[in-house]
Amino acid sequence: MRVRQAATLSPELAAESEALGLKLARLRMARGIKQLDAAVRAGLSRNTAYRLERGDPGLAFGQILRYLNAIAPGQTLLDLLSENDPALKALSVRERTQRVRDMTTRELKSLDF
Predict the structure, then answer these.
(1) Each residue's pLDDT tens digit, 39-65
(2) What are phi and psi of 101, to 5 degrees?
(3) Taking burial as the number of CB atoms within 10 A of a residue's CB, which of 4, 46, 51, 56 is the most buried?
(4) Which string of DSSP letters, residue by residue, matches 16-79?
């Protein structure tokens, strides 16, 4: 009896798998959906949703599509990969916004002409 070895991914394919999972997670967060709620809508376990968002390459392609549809009904995989969703664009703007701290007295004095 031969034992079948699991195929290992090249570093490039592993990175692509992780990037896809990250995009799914960002879309879910941008839309304000909890991971458990998205999993239930997709008919998946929370563990499977976690694995999808971590970029586990051992999951079925259909699970990825069902999860995407649960998060953003009507969105295609191409939409996800190109990040065309308005919620993702709004999330990017929020992430770029940074608080400005008050200047110290010393910094203010150094600017005083």
Answers:
(1) 999 999 999 999 999 999 999 999 999
(2) -85, 155
(3) 51
(4) HHHHHHHHHHHHHHHTT--HHHHHHHHT--HHHHHHHHHT-TTS-HHHHHHHHHHHSTT--HHH
The answer to whether the Cα torsion of 82, 94, 72, 86 is positive or negative is negative
pTM score: 0.74
Q: Give the tokens for residue 64.
A: 């990825």
- At position 39, the amino acid (one-letter code) is A
Burial class (CB in 10 A: 0-12, 13-18, 19+), 65: middle
CB 105 within 8 A of CB 48: no
Radius of gyration, CA atoms only, the chain: 21
